[in-house]
Amino acid sequence: METRRDVFQAIADPTRRAIIGMIAKEPVNVNTIAEQFDVSRQAISLHLKILAECGLLNMKQQGRERICEAKLEKLNEINEWVSQYKQFWESKLDALGKFLNNNKRSK
Question: How confident is the model at residue 6 (pLDDT cuts 50, 70, 90)?
Answer without folding.
Answer: confident
